[in-house]
């Protein structure tokens, strides 16, 4: 246990060091071997770092509470992705070192190198029930406690977020309508679900808060001291913030690096292959807050969702080619040439290969499942006849089909495909009983408050020198956002929605 915790602390420390190097612009790609996987991960890190910079400036410029909540949510997602990518980069580097140091035993069999196929995992119909007090929900008494809530979901380095939902006592369930699909998961996947909340009653700073604070302090401190304080906060001439100058020793207030709302972890859970079922199921939550927290919500301690998986062996062709099938025609056994396709729990046999491409009904279908037995036979080696038998049990009776490969090499290829297929089914278990349906998620829509008010980026990108008034919801000085940041925010909204 000590070694495991120590290793975890070392990994976190290395990731933190990598992040600092990225921030300072000193991250050197030469530290890692230039493999395609390394390059791809590095590009993703660079992209998320740029997105994080944009989210920070977006958050600092927000004057609307709803916009600030969306920006803070984006910042949290970017940070999570950066840490996930850096951890993966570190893991890949350590794997490369271990691979060079480790020597494979001479007696290792082919099964030692066999890996299960990858697949897609989808979670949808996410529901989190709430348990309000009778006086709050039925009698509508007490303060209207309101929170902004969203979920962060992760499988490996794939991280997605749900839409943000405003929650108060008028809701009995927190509902996230849109499904999320993870494209590259193995049967050992661990789906982490984290629920984040931010109390709407929290007095978090927005873009124009420092000026309001300066006005209040200047009136209470007096005219001369107040002028120096306002100059300090505005970053004017002679201010230590702007150029390190003197100015008579003005009062300095700590300025947060990223002002604005802060999300807190409300609850979390972890799902795996055993939780996959093509139906609506309930999962336990681990609650990490209490009633004293401003972001607290009365959770039941459970979460409902539909978790399904599609292994590639169930929805893609694993092997295809011509073989002869032994069929009874009248009183004689004849060999009929068929184009066979191994996919899912069936071996589809077509008379022509074009029929497989056009999805025509196959001429014959043989079941392939965990109970199927396949054996290679060589009845006549002199005539180079290489066949296999496929046996299934239907009720109390066994049915065997004989197939003849066109060469010894083809027979080996088919046998290897079958063994891999059986291995995939043994690893993905119930996901291979039948093909589970995964619906393609609809395109992500901008949040309701942004679609009504316009996104912050579009408000900043309005043509002309005029600055929106406070009644329009945004206070920005001329040239507050550079062309580079405008382009970055444009990319951010394009990628998000």
UniProtKB/TrEMBL annotation:
InterPro entries: AHD, Cytokinesis/Rho-signaling, HR1_rho-bd, PH-like_dom_sf, PH_domain. Gene3D superfamilies: Pleckstrin-homology domain (PH domain)/Phosphotyrosine-binding domain (PTB) (2.30.29.30). GO terms for cellular component: actomyosin contractile ring. The keyword Coiled coil applies. It comes from the Eukaryota. Residues 22-98 form the REM-1 domain. GO terms for biological process: actomyosin contractile ring assembly; mitotic cytokinesis; septin ring organization; signal transduction. Keywords: Coiled coil. GO terms for molecular function: GTPase inhibitor activity. The keyword Coiled coil applies. Residues 316-423 form the PH domain. This is Rhotekin isoform X5. It comes from Geotrypetes seraphini.
């Amino acid at each position: 246990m000590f070694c495991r915790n120590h290793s975890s602390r070392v990994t976190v420390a290395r990731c933190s060091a990598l992040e600092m190097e990225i921030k300072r612009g000193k991250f050197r790609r030469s530290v890692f071997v230039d493999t395609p996987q390394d390059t791809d991960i590095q590009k993703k890190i660079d992209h998320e770092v740029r997105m994080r910079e944009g989210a920070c400036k977006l958050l600092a410029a927000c004057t609307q509470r709803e916009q600030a909540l969306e920006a803070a949510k984006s910042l949290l997602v970017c940070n999570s992705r950066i840490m996930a990518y850096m951890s993966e980069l570190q893991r890949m580097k350590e794997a490369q070192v271990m691979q060079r140091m480790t020597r494979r035993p001479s007696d290792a069999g082919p099964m030692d190198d066999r890996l299960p196929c990858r697949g897609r995992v989808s979670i949808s119909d996410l529901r989190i029930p709430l348990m309000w007090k009778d006086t709050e929900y039925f009698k509508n008494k007490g303060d209207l406690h309101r929170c902004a809530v969203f979920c962060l979901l992760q499988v490996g380095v794939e991280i997605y977020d749900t839409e943000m939902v405003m929650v108060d006592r008028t809701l009995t369930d927190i509902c996230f309508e849109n499904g999320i699909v993870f494209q590259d998961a193995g049967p050992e996947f661990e789906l982490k679900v984290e629920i984040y909340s931010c109390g709407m009653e929290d007095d978090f700073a927005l873009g124009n808060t420092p000026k309001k604070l300066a006005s209040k302090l200047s009136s209470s401190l007096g005219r001369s001291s107040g002028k120096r304080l306002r100059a300090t906060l505005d970053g004017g001439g002679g201010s230590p913030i702007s150029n390190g100058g003197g100015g008579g020793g003005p009062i300095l207030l700590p300025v947060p690096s990223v002002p604005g709302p802060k999300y807190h972890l409300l609850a979390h859970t972890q799902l795996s292959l055993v939780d996959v079922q093509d139906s609506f199921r309930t999962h336990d939550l681990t609650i990490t807050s209490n009633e004293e927290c401003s972001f607290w919500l009365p959770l039941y301690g459970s979460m409902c969702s539909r978790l399904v998986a599609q292994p590639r062996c169930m929805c893609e062709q694993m092997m295809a080619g011509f073989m002869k099938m032994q069929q009874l025609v009248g009183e004689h056994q004849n060999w009929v040439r068929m184009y066979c396709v191994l996919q899912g729990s069936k071996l589809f046999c077509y008379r022509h290969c074009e029929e497989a491409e056009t999805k025509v009904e196959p001429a014959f279908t043989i079941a392939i499942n965990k109970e199927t037995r396949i054996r290679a036979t060589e009845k006549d080696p002199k005539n180079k006849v290489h066949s296999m038998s496929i046996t299934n049990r239907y009720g109390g009776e066994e049915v065997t089909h004989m197939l003849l490969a066109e060469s010894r090499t083809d027979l080996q290829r088919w046998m290897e495909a079958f063994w891999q297929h059986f291995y995939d089914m043994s690893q993905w278990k119930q996901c291979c009983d039948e093909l589970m349906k995964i619906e393609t998620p609809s395109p992500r829509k901008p949040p309701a408050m942004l679609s009504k008010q316009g996104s912050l980026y579009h408000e900043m990108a309005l043509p002309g020198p005029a600055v929106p008034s406070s009644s329009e919801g945004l206070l920005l000085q001329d040239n507050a956002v550079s062309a580079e940041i405008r382009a970055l925010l444009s990319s951010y909204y394009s990628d998000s929605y």
